[in-house]
Design brief:
The chain is α/β, with parallel strands linked by helices. It has helices at about 45-50, 65-70, 75-80, 95-100, 120-130, 150-155, 170-175, 195-200, and strands at about 5, 10, 15, 25-30, 35, 60-65, 85-90, 110-115, 140-145, 160-165. The chain contains 8 helices and 10 strands.
Length: about 200
């Protein structure tokens, strides 16, 4: 069972992560290789698969963006009481979620971003965009292949909760949030990067 870290504490997860049903994913040939549609910008799930996704009638549930976009009117009353969160897959755009909420992303108490593989870093951009462009202030949760070595970078790009891969040790992951004292790039955390500090020293005015 996966552990959940919120902030720097191990906590009980009150949310049920809902995933799309397993289905044969369409593929096509490109440059001699089989490429999934979701890597080409085409829909990764059919309407039938989205409609077949079962969402519990009660409790706090984190549902796929595709299900939210297709069935959000069905969830209106549950959004009002804080029972619905939405998660994005790595190929999905924060803009689609924001548009569906008329820009009011803070109506959702939880947004998740899936990291399907360690090498797929698109989710970092999604987190940054949700925090900085859309002003999301509630829980932003990293999902999927969430590993110790990523923790510092999750937090730098706006994530404040982390559903660890089942084989990860939570105490090591919490410690990893403080792996580096000085960043080299600007990000969402307001931590002044090295180059800014050097400029400030050279030009104190």
């Amino acid at each position: 069972m996966a552990d959940l870290i919120r902030g720097e504490s191990l906590v009980r997860d009150e949310w049920t992560w809902i995933k799309l049903p397993e289905a044969a994913e369409p593929v096509r040939k490109a440059a001699g290789k089989v490429v999934m549609f979701k890597l080409t910008g085409e829909p990764a799930a059919s309407d039938a698969v989205i409609d077949a996704c079962e969402v519990p009638a009660t409790g706090k549930v984190l549902i796929p963006l595709s299900v939210w976009l297709r069935r959000r009117e069905d969830f209106a009353s549950r959004v009002a009481v804080g029972e619905i969160g939405v998660w994005l897959d790595s190929h999905e755009e924060p803009a689609d979620l924001a548009d569906s909420l008329d820009g009011e992303v803070n109506r959702l108490p939880l947004i998740g971003v899936n990291f399907p593989k360690f090498i797929d870093g698109r989710g970092y951009s999604a987190g940054f965009i949700l925090r900085n462009r859309y002003g999301y202030r509630n829980e932003l949760r990293a999902l999927g292949d969430v590993l110790r070595d990523q923790m510092f970078f999750f937090r730098r790009t706006g994530f404040d909760a982390y559903l660890l891969r089942a084989d990860q040790k939570p105490e090591r992951c919490i410690a990893a949030l403080r792996d580096f004292s000085t960043p080299y790039q600007t990000s969402t955390d307001g931590n002044l990067p090295v180059f800014r500090r050097r400029i400030g020293q050279a030009n104190p005015a």
